[in-house]
Design a protein that fits this description.
Elements lengths: L1 H30 L7 H32 L6 H21 L9 H31 L1
Helix pairs in contact: 2-3, 3-4
Length: about 140
């Protein structure tokens, strides 16, 4: 009995040791540094949690905008901008997970963000007009 427990304990310890070594090797390969910086795990986990929360908020905001659009109501530009801000935050979190810093806030980036917001607002307005025209045809 004692011998069987010893073998089981030895197997568990060997398996645990091999798992730890494999984790360190894989983490080193993924991050590209040895010895690996294990504090990145905690930061990455927190970023993933924030990303999941932002994804839920984006999904809810998108559902609200789609419901407004489907019901024939005009979509507010502020709602579209809020959705764009959430998408931008999610992109920045994704970049930080890949080891890149936050997106640089240059004049060109700001101009592009404003153009994207305007294009999205135009898209929602066009969709609203299409829905109204479809209702007239019916």
């Amino acid at each position: 009995m004692r011998e069987a427990l010893g073998k089981v304990a030895g197997s568990i310890l060997r398996s645990l040791f091999i798992s730890i070594v494999m984790f360190v090797v894989v983490f080193s390969v993924i991050t590209g540094e040895f010895p690996p910086d294990f504090s990145r795990i905690k930061k990455g986990y927190q970023s993933l949690q924030q990303m999941a929360q932002l994804s839920r908020q984006i999904h809810q905001q998108h559902k609200i905008l789609k419901a407004q659009n489907d019901s024939g109501q005009a979509v507010d530009d502020a709602d579209v901008e809020a959705l764009q801000e959430l998408n931008l935050k999610r992109a920045e979190l994704g970049a930080s997970l890949l080891g890149e810093g936050p997106l640089p806030q240059t004049a060109e980036v700001t101009q592009l963000q404003n153009q994207i917001k305007e294009l999205q607002a135009q898209l929602f307005r066009l969709q609203d007009r299409v829905n109204k025209l479809e209702e007239r045809v019916k």
